[in-house]
C-alpha cells in the first residue's frame, strides 16, 4: 500500500513512494506499474528542466492537488510577467461577482478575451470596469494579491495555481454562468494544458500568455485546472523565454504524466 508522499523541493521535483509490504507478499502488479510510470515521468521532467536551464533560461512549474494541497514544484516562487494568463481569472472574477449581468453586458468581450486572447476585448473590459474590486477580491482570497493598475501584473506559478484553485471552486458549481465559462475555457488559444492533459476522460480549464521583445517582459506562461476521474489539480508552467511553447510543452508533458500517476496512487 502507499505509505507516504512527499512534495517537490525547490530544485527538482521529489516524489517519494514508500512501499510497505510483508516480506512474503508478492509485488502488486498495479503498484509496480504505477511506480514505473512515476519514475519515468520524473526522469523526463528533470531532463526537460535541465535542458532549459542549461541553455541559460529560467523555468518554473507547479502542480497543486486541489483535494489535499500537495504540490509537485520547481522554482515555484520566481515571479514572471503574467501576460495573457491573467485574462481568464479576470473574466471569471467578473462573472462570479456579477452573474447574468456580466454575461448580458459583456458576453462577447468575455468570450473574445478568453478564447482568442483578444487584447482589444480585454482593454475594453478593463476600461468599462475601471475601479471595480472583483479581481482584487478573488486574488486576495487565493493568497496571491495582484496589482492590476496597469492591467497586467507579475506573479509566480504558485500564485497562478492558487488563483486557479479559487476559480475552480466556483467553476465547479451548478451556476449556469459557471457552465458557460467552463465550455469556453476548455479550448483557449495556445494553451497546452488542454492539448496535453485534456484526454482520457479529463476536462481542463486554462489560459496561456506569451510575450517577446523586451527582456523585462519576455515570458511564456500557461496554467489552469485539470479535472480527472481520480481528482483535480491546478497546474502552471512558465519560462522567461518569450513565446517559447516548445519548452513549456517539454516540461508540461511529463509533469502531467507525473501528476496523473500521483492521483492514481492515492
Automatic annotation (TrEMBL):
Biological process per Gene Ontology, one example term: response to antibiotic
Example GO molecular function: beta-lactamase activity
Protein name in UniProt: Serine hydrolase
Amino acid at each position: 500500500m502507499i505509505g507516504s508522499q512527499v512534495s517537490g523541493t525547490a530544485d527538482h521535483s521529489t516524489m517519494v513512494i514508500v512501499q510497505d509490504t510483508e516480506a512474503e507478499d508478492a509485488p502488486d502488479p498495479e503498484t509496480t506499474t504505477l511506480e514505473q510510470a512515476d519514475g519515468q515521468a520524473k526522469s523526463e521532467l528533470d531532463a526537460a528542466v535541465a535542458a532549459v536551464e542549461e541553455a541559460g533560461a529560467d523555468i518554473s512549474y507547479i502542480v497543486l492537488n486541489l483535494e489535499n494541497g500537495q504540490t509537485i514544484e520547481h522554482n515555484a516562487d520566481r515571479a514572471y510577467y503574467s501576460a495573457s494568463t491573467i485574462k481568464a481569472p479576470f473574466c471569471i472574477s467578473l462573472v462570479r461577482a456579477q452573474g447574468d449581468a456580466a454575461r448580458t453586458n459583456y458576453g462577447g468581450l468575455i468570450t473574445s478575451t478568453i478564447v482568442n486572447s483578444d487584447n482589444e476585448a480585454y482593454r475594453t473590459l478593463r476600461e468599462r470596469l475601471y475601479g471595480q474590486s472583483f479581481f482584487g477580491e478573488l486574488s486576495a482570497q487565493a493568497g496571491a494579491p495582484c496589482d492590476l493598475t496597469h492591467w497586467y501584473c507579475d506573479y509566480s506559478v504558485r500564485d497562478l495555481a492558487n488563483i486557479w484553485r479559487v476559480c475552480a471552486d466556483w467553476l465547479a458549481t451548478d451556476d449556469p454562468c459557471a457552465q458557460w465559462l467552463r465550455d469556453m475555457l476548455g479550448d483557449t488559444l495556445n494553451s497546452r494544458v488542454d492539448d496535453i492533459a485534456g484526454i482520457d476522460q479529463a476536462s481542463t480549464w486554462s489560459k496561456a500568455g506569451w510575450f517577446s521583445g523586451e527582456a523585462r517582459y519576455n515570458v511564456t506562461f500557461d496554467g489552469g485546472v485539470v479535472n480527472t476521474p481520480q481528482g483535480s489539480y491546478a497546474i502552471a508552467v512558465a519560462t522567461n523565454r518569450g513565446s517559447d511553447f516548445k519548452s513549456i510543452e517539454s516540461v508540461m508533458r511529463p509533469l502531467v504524466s507525473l501528476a496523473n500517476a500521483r492521483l492514481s496512487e492515492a
